[in-house]
Specification:
heterotetramer; A: 284 residues; alpha/beta; Glutaconate Coenzyme A-transferase; 10-stranded mixed sheet; 3-stranded antiparallel sheet; 24% strand; C: 264 residues; two-stranded antiparallel ribbon; 8 helices
Chain lengths: 284, 284, 264, 264
Amino acid sequence: MAHFMTLPEAVAQNLNSGDTAAFEGFTHLIPHASAHEALRQGIKDLTLVRMTPDLIYDQMIGMGAVRKLIFSYAGNPGVGLLRRLRDSVENGWPHKIEIEEHSHAAMANAYEAGAAGLPFAMLRGYKGAELARVNPNIKSVTCPFTGEELAAVPAIRPDVTFIHAQKADRKGNVLVEGIVGVQKEAVLAAKRSVVTVEEIVDDLSAHPNACVLPGWTVTVICEVPGGAHPSYAHGYYPRDNASYIAWDRIAADRDTFLAWMKENVLDATPEVFDDRVSHLRSRS
Amino acid sequence: MAHFMTLPEAVAQNLNSGDTAAFEGFTHLIPHASAHEALRQGIKDLTLVRMTPDLIYDQMIGMGAVRKLIFSYAGNPGVGLLRRLRDSVENGWPHKIEIEEHSHAAMANAYEAGAAGLPFAMLRGYKGAELARVNPNIKSVTCPFTGEELAAVPAIRPDVTFIHAQKADRKGNVLVEGIVGVQKEAVLAAKRSVVTVEEIVDDLSAHPNACVLPGWTVTVICEVPGGAHPSYAHGYYPRDNASYIAWDRIAADRDTFLAWMKENVLDATPEVFDDRVSHLRSRS
Amino acid sequence: MIETDFTPTEMMTIAAARALKNTDVCFVGIGAPSAACNIARLTHAPDVTLIYESGTIGTAPSVLPLSIGDGELCDTAVTTVSVPEMFRYWLQGGRVTVGFLGAAQIDRFGNINTTVIGEYDHPKTRLPGGGGAPEIASSCGEIFITLKQSKRAMVEKIDFFTSFGHGEGGDHRARLGITTKGPTLMVTDLAVWRTDPVTHEFTVVLLHPGVTREMVQAECGWTVRFADEVDETPPPTELELTTLRDLNARTKAAHSGAHTGDAA
Amino acid sequence: MIETDFTPTEMMTIAAARALKNTDVCFVGIGAPSAACNIARLTHAPDVTLIYESGTIGTAPSVLPLSIGDGELCDTAVTTVSVPEMFRYWLQGGRVTVGFLGAAQIDRFGNINTTVIGEYDHPKTRLPGGGGAPEIASSCGEIFITLKQSKRAMVEKIDFFTSFGHGEGGDHRARLGITTKGPTLMVTDLAVWRTDPVTHEFTVVLLHPGVTREMVQAECGWTVRFADEVDETPPPTELELTTLRDLNARTKAAHSGAHTGDAA
C-alpha cells in the first residue's frame, strides 16, 4: 500500500546512488520536482532510463549525477539539442556518460515487457537501422510459426520509477489522464515507485477505463502541486513553452548552467513548483 | 472509413461461408444480434474464434454452422456447460467440430499480437499444462538474453470480427466502455469488422483515454439497440441472467433447441432485440 | 458469538474466506471462490484486492456476480483494464499474491482438470476448459482451492492436467522451472487441507465441526493423509454467517429477475 | 487565386501538404512535418488522420505543437492511447499509410541520420537520436520527407543509418525483408523529389517557382538527378498561404507566452 510522505523523504528512502532509475513522462507530466530533489540530495552514479530524456536528464547529466543513459530520443522538443548531454558525450564534461540507445518502439516495448513480467520484448523493428550494430542489447528471435526474424530487447526493470500524476486518493490510487505516455508501464516494471501528484482527493472520480494505478502498486505518494513544471499537468496548467525555449540558452554555457542550477534547484525546495505554475493555471 | 448500413447488409457483405470469424465480447457486449443474423443468412463452415464461447457459439454449433472452434473457456458463465457444444464434441451432432484450445492468457496475447501486427505472441504460460501436448499451435521461444523458454502461440487474425459497442458517432468512431474485454484487439487484428451499437450519436463525449476505435479502423457500423441481449451494454441495460439460466434447459434437448432457434432466431429480425431489453432498461 | 446451525457449504465458504489476508491481491477464479473472496472482503479483510479476469481490479460487488464479467464488478472496481492487459501486466506481471480456484476434478497434489472427462479427443464429458487457470496456477504467489468433496471430483488420477499443481509431488514444480508456490491450501465442505512441505501432498489439518476422518475419506478418491495433529475448524461466527447469508440472499434476488423466456 | 509573394519555406510546407490525401493516416514526425500535415488538414484534406507518437490519434490542433505531446493534441484527438499501444497496435500494426519525417542528414536514397555527426562512439555532434523514426521508416505504407536543402543536410554519405530508406538503392529494401514502400517523396524548399521506381534514387520532378536546376544542385551534396520532364510546382493558392500564415501566427502567439525565466 502506498505511503504518503514528503518528497525529500520519498527520495531519501527510495533512490540510492548507483540505482537504475526512470523519471518518466512523455512531454506531459514530467517529474521535474523529483529530479530536482534527487540532485539536492546528491545522488550519484545513476543509470537513467527514459524514452525522451529532456531538461531534467540534461540537468542531471550536467551536474555529474549520471553514469549511464538508456534512451531513444534526447532532445529539447521543438527547441533543439540537449547541450549538457552533448557536452558530456562530445567533450566529457563533467564526465563522459555511457550510452545505451534504442528506438522509441523498442523502449516502449521494453517497458511493456517489464510491466508484463517478461524477460524481453520483441518487435518488428530496427530493420536496416544502424543502432542494431552499436547496441549489443539489440538481438533477435525467430517466429516458430512463420520463421520471421524479429528484434528483441531486454525488458526494462528500473530499481525505482518516478512519475508525476494529476491526482491520488487517500488510499493511494493514482489517476493519470491525457497523454499517458509509458508511465503506467514504468511504474509496474519498477521495483519501487514514487508518484508526485497535483493533489490528493477523497474520490478520484475516474472513468472506469482511465489509467489508474491502484495504491498497492505504488510505493510512495507525495503531494507536489506544480511538480511537472515546465512540463504540464493536463487539467491543471499548460506546458511552459517559454521555459523550454529559455533552457537552450541556459544550458549553452557551463557557468550559466551551474549558476542557474544553484539558484533554481540546489537552493530551492519542492514547494517552489506551486509558485512556478501559478501564472499558468489561468491558461489551463 | 466506416460505412453505415443495416445488419443484414453488413453480414451479407462481410461474412462468407468458410471464414475465420470472431464474435467477441467478454461477458459484456456480446454481439448476439450479429450471430443471429449470420445464422439467418445460412453462413456455414465457419472457424469461430473466441476466448469465451457462450450462448451464441453454442447456438451456431448446434445449427451446424461451425467447422472449427478456437477458444479458451466454453461455458455458460455461472450456469454450467454448453450443451450444444458438448453434443457436437461428444456425440457428433449435428457434426463433430474441430477444436483448437488455448488458455485465456494465450488467447488474449494472440489477439494482442494480431492487433500489433506480429506473427506470434509469447507468454510465460502453459507450464506443466497439458494443452501444450494436444495443441500443436503451442510452441516456444527462448529469450536471447536470459535463456528462459517462453510459450509461443500464433497471432489471431480473423477474416472478420463482430463486436457490439455502446455508441458510434456519425464519422464511425466507436466507444466501448466498462468491461472492454479483448474487443479492441479483435477488431484491430481482423481484416474486416462489423460493429453493432446501441445508438449513433453526434458526439461520443468520450474520455480522452477511453477505448475508442477510430472510424477508419472499422468496416461497418450498424445501429442495433439491444443487440447484446441477453448479455449487457453498460449504461444501457443489465445482463439478463434469467435468460442465461433458461438457456441451460433450452439447449439440453435437440428438439427444444431447434424449435427455440426457429422461433427466436430464424424467424426473427435484428429489430426484436430492442424489445427484448425494454423491460431491463429501467434496471440499468 | 459462535453459531452452531450452519451447512457444510457455509462452513466451506467461511473457512476459505479466512485464508485471505487484508493485504492480499487475489485473482478470483470462476465459481465457488467468488463467495469466499467476497466474504473475506466483507468481514476481516476489507482492503483485500479482488481481481476478476474480466479486467476488474479492486472490485467490491454487493451481490455475487453470476458471470465473472457482471456490470457491478466494473461499477465498484478501482479500475477496469482490457483482458490482454489483465493477463500481461497483472497476472503474468507477478502482482497477484493468491489465485483462488475451483476444480471439477483434482488430485492429491493439487493438479486440476476442468477440460475433459475421458480422452481429450473423444471425451465422455467435455468440460469448459482452462480459461485463466493454467497461468493463474503458475503466476500467482500461491494457490488456494475450494470445492465440495466427492469421489468424482477428488480422484487418484485426473483425466487431463488443465492446470499444474505439484505434478507428481516433491520438487516436480521446481523441476519445471515454476518459481511460485502453487497450491498451499484446499478448503472443502468437510475439512481444511494444507500442502505437505516436502511431498506437497494435501494433508487434512482441520476437520469442520462434526466431521470425522471417515467422512472425509468417504468422499475422497485417494487415501487421505491427515496431519499429526488435526484440530477442529473454528465454527462460523455470527458475523461470518450473517454476512454470508445476507450476500447469498442479495445475490439470489438479483439474479432471479423476471425471466423473459424469449431470448437467450 | 495564385499568390506570388511567398517564402521558400512556405512553398515547401504547402507542397508537402499537398501530398497528403484526405483518406491518409499519417504518422507525423517531430519538427518540420507537423506544419505540412496540419496545412493538409486545414485545406484539401479535412478528414486526414494525424497521429503523433505521444499517443494522440486523429488530432486537430489549432496551433502547431512545440513538442509532439502538447496538451492540445490530446484535447482535439479522437482518442489518446499509451505510447506502447501507439507503437504496437498503430505503427507496427500496419495501419499508417504515410510516415512524414524530417531529417538532419539524408542521402539520395532517403536514408536518414538524426543520431550523430562523426563517429558513433566519439561524435562531433551528438544529435537527438532516432526516436520513432527507425520503425516509422519500416512500418508505414510509404514515407514522405521534408527538409530545407543544404549541403550539410543532403550528403553523399550519411554518418549513421538512423532510419533506413532504400539503403544502397535498387531492391536493397526488399532484400532486408521490408515490405513497405519506404521513401517515395521528398519536398524541400526548392523542389519536389520522387523516388525512381527502379534505382530508388530521389529525382527532382518539380521545381518551385523561380528555382533553377543549378540552385537545387548548389544546396545538395550529391549529384542531383532530374526527371526527363521537370515541371514547375504550382505556386501556393491564396487559401493555402492564408491558412499557413494564420496557423503560424496563432502558433507564435501561443508559444511565446510570458517567460518565467526562473525554472526550466
